[in-house]
Specification:
heterodimer, A: about 250 residues, alpha/beta, six-stranded mixed β-sheet, four-stranded antiparallel β-sheet, 8 helices, globular, B: about 230 residues, mainly alpha, two-stranded antiparallel sheet, about 60% helix, disordered C terminus, transport (chain A), ATP-binding (chain A), ABC_transpr_LolD-like (chain A), ATP binding (chain A)
Chain lengths: ~250, ~230
């Protein structure tokens, strides 16, 4: 868990607002959100339903546009980017993990992971090599030639994380990735996400489960579209005596 | 009497001296409940008085050794066999605090809940990090396997406890919001000026559960003005 210091954030949200509807039916889904996520950092976003968690994530990923404010991904303001730049950024810099995995059923695990690279113009052979390497690095090499329906939910979600981070993408946005999994499997998916962030990725995890949020470096609490609080990064070694923490 | 039985359990593996018991107790439980040597000797004295341990000889370094007696073994068996009593819950400061915060003047109960939630989730983050380390130690086949497993179980208990607390806090907040919405809907809207109680009228819903009607805050003490 590297503490970000002089590094540039991978994701910056600045004074982000999102208003749905107008006049009497106007709903302020987000009210002035500021958030920086650094390489190596996993940030969990918690809050009751309707607090704006998912809206925040879709805007951070360029899937929705804010009413005002900026979203900066790897130094590019995606709110000001043209459609082509935005599409390229979504392919090259941002990975998504959804609750229902969203793997393509007709493709094997390796083909699913290779797909975003192929869309990016990388040769099929190289894309496959990268996909196999990504799967192997995550301990999923044995799943490479399986189709989604031949894998468990937990395995599919791990493949989805591999797909989200294949190539040199460094930002993974995960919306309730453990929602469809039992708690043991959910835990192993979180452990993998944690591991990818320790290896240098930046992650934003939306969850309502404190147990999964606890894997994050920082937990941000949303209420009515605003950040009301966040946990301070603390050093586990200070929690219990030194002897215990070294174990 | 967990220290008492904890020491008996360690002594069942063979005679030990005081500071050795302290070290072993802490390595099993990851120093979650640190003992001082004084506590260990006080407990040993009581165990000896009750005939559950006996002093017997010294080791090479001259430490007085304690050994478990037959009565001590029986006591230990009984402890393992009997569930820990949960029928008279220990006093829980958080539950008492929230109970007192309901309708308390000048207290925004939602802030009380949030500051606790942050603290509880921070503790969970720490425990989760320690758990990840403990699992790594176990998987790497570290030597002290029995202690590592014991420590992992203790850590997971702490995670389950803090998780239960965080979920309960979410639940409290949701319930208070529902109750105050219901109170508003049934005509006790706090936007209306305070009314002189009408003796002929039924008490409004908020009063029925003993909640105050402070102006600016609603029945449950959820101050709307503090919401962003």
């Amino acid at each position: 868990m590297s503490r970000p210091t002089s590094q540039q954030p991978v994701l910056q949200l600045q004074q982000l607002t999102r208003v749905h509807g107008t006049g009497a039916t106007e709903v302020h889904a987000l009210r002035g959100i500021d958030l920086d996520v650094f390489p190596g950092e996993l940030v969990a976003v918690m809050g009751p339903s309707g607090s704006g968690k998912s809206t925040l994530l879709t805007i951070a990923g360029g899937l929705d546009t804010p009413s005002s404010g900026q979203v900066i991904v790897e130094n590019t303001d995606i709110t000001a980017a043209d459609r082509k730049t935005l599409a390229a950024l979504r392919r090259r810099s941002i990975g998504y993990v959804f609750q229902d995995y969203n793997l393509i059923p007709a493709l094997t695990a390796a083909e699913n992971v290779a797909l975003p690279r192929e869309l990016d113009g990388v040769s099929a052979r190289r894309a496959r090599a990268e996909a196999l390497a990504a799967l192997a690095e995550m301990g999923l090499g044995h799943l490479a030639d399986r189709f989604p329906d031949e894998m468990s939910g937990g395995q599919q979600q791990r493949v989805a994380i591999a797909r989200a981070l294949v190539g040199d993408r460094r930002l993974v946005l995960a919306d309730e990735p453990t929602g469809a999994l039992d708690s043991e499997t959910g835990e192993s998916v979180l452990a993998l996400l944690r591991n990818r962030c320790d290896a240098g990725a930046a992650g934003v995890l939306v969850t309502h489960e404190p147990r999964f949020a606890a894997w994050a470096d920082r937990v941000v609490f949303l209420r009515d579209g605003a950040v009301v609080d966040q946990t301070l990064r603390s050093d586990a070694d200070s929690l219990l005596s030194g002897q215990a923490a070294e174990r | 009497m967990s220290i008492r039985h904890g020491l008996l359990a360690l002594l069942e593996r063979g005679p030990r001296y005081g500071s050795q018991l302290r070290t072993e107790f802490e390595s099993r439980t990851g120093s979650t409940w640190p003992l001082n040597v004084g506590q260990v000797y006080t407990t040993l004295n009581r165990l000896e008085r009750d005939g559950l341990v006996a002093q017997g000889g010294e080791d090479e370094a001259g430490h007085a050794l304690y050994a478990i007696t037959e009565a001590g073994r029986e006591e230990l068996r009984a402890w393992y066999d009997k569930p820990v009593d949960r029928t008279s819950p220990a006093r829980d400061e958080l539950a008492i605090k929230l109970a007192m915060a309901v309708g308390a003047p000048g207290v925004d109960i939602r802030n009380v809940i949030q500051s606790q939630r942050r603290h509880t989730v921070e503790a969970m983050q720490d425990y989760t990090r320690l758990k990840a380390q403990a699992i790594t130690a176990l998987e790497s086949g570290a030597s002290q396997e029995r202690d590592d497993v014991a420590w992992l179980l203790v850590l997971e208990q702490l995670i389950f406890q803090t998780e239960a607390e965080a979920r309960w806090l979410d639940h409290c907040e949701a319930r208070l919001i529902r109750l105050s919405a219901a109170a508003r809907a049934s005509g006790t809207a706090q936007d209306a000026p305070p009314r002189v109680p009408d003796p002929g009228r039924r008490a409004p819903a908020g009063d029925a559960i003993g909640l105050s009607h402070a102006p600016g805050g609603d029945a449950t003490g959820l101050s709307r003005t503090s919401r962003s």
